[in-house]
Amino acid sequence: MGYDIGWIIPRLRNPGRLWHCASSITVAVVGLFSKIILEFLNKTTVYNRETLAAAVRRPRGQPLLTVSNHHSCFDDPGLWGVLDLASLTRPACMRWSLAAHDICFTNALHSCFFALGKCVPVVRGAGVHQPAMDFCVERLSRGEWVHIFPEGRVNVNKEHIRFKWGVGRLVADCSAAPLILPVWHEGMDAVLPNTEPYLLKFRKQVFLNVGEPIQIHHLLDKLRSANASEEETRAAITACIQDELLRLRDATRALMRRGAPLSARAPNGTAPQPERDSEL
């Protein structure tokens, strides 16, 4: 029987002063550590960095949902090392991230660390209406930032994995349409390989491409007008996000091949549609 994670989400909802203080320190320290690893000990090329910075500094109360591919266990928090120091040291503006309960929350020590770092334990296969998803919908509705890996697991072989419907639920059930920002990265699995002994590497090349916000309002209006069911709504939103993120993948790889400058904008590409499946 695995470790009981039942206490974590109630604690995140009602943190208390001591928990809040410890969480602030944890988020700041991990953020600074990620910055040292990504920008000082490895070589990271960031396309459209200003788009991510603007999203993090968005107007107060606007929900932010970031979505990205998942190639390494260091993707989160590592990717956010590209943010400026002001953002990294202000935990209130940093993301909430869904993390696998059977990997990150296996004992009391690990559970405290990841929970203090604003990670929420998600049970893979438990569906879109589990407590972790409810909590993230609440955070988005309060205008906070949530990050999700729609593939649902580390994609070790970098194959096509259909996106899970959980991302569709986050958008559909948020009280206001969130700002949805796609991020594609390459090279994080070289920084932290997916093979033992799972040690961080240095002097590796990482590419990070921040796409333009995904325009979802017209789709939401269309779904409401058609009285679409919850499943139809989640499927359609997930399909839209998958299409845009995989389009960004193609654009990122094109930029890498050309050795484009950091200010380059990503061209459009094509991507397959996701399979229909209600499992998170």
Automatic annotation (TrEMBL):
<feature type="region of interest" description="Disordered">
    <location>
        <begin position="259"/>
        <end position="280"/>
    </location>
</feature>
<keyword id="KW-0808">Transferase</keyword>
<keyword id="KW-0443">Lipid metabolism</keyword>
<keyword id="KW-0472">Membrane</keyword>
<dbReference type="GO" id="GO:0047184">
    <property type="term" value="F:1-acylglycerophosphocholine O-acyltransferase activity"/>
</dbReference>
<dbReference type="GO" id="GO:0005741">
    <property type="term" value="C:mitochondrial outer membrane"/>
</dbReference>
<feature type="domain" description="Phospholipid/glycerol acyltransferase">
    <location>
        <begin position="64"/>
        <end position="188"/>
    </location>
</feature>
<keyword id="KW-0999">Mitochondrion inner membrane</keyword>
<keyword id="KW-0012">Acyltransferase</keyword>
<dbReference type="InterPro" id="IPR000872">
    <property type="entry name" value="Tafazzin"/>
</dbReference>
<dbReference type="InterPro" id="IPR002123">
    <property type="entry name" value="Plipid/glycerol_acylTrfase"/>
</dbReference>
<keyword id="KW-0496">Mitochondrion</keyword>
<protein>
    <recommendedName>
        <fullName>Tafazzin family protein</fullName>
    </recommendedName>
</protein>
<dbReference type="GO" id="GO:0005743">
    <property type="term" value="C:mitochondrial inner membrane"/>
</dbReference>
<dbReference type="GO" id="GO:0007007">
    <property type="term" value="P:inner mitochondrial membrane organization"/>
</dbReference>
<dbReference type="GO" id="GO:0035965">
    <property type="term" value="P:cardiolipin acyl-chain remodeling"/>
</dbReference>
<comment type="similarity">
    <text>Belongs to the taffazin family.</text>
</comment>
<dbReference type="Pfam" id="PF01553">
    <property type="entry name" value="Acyltransferase"/>
</dbReference>
<keyword id="KW-1000">Mitochondrion outer membrane</keyword>
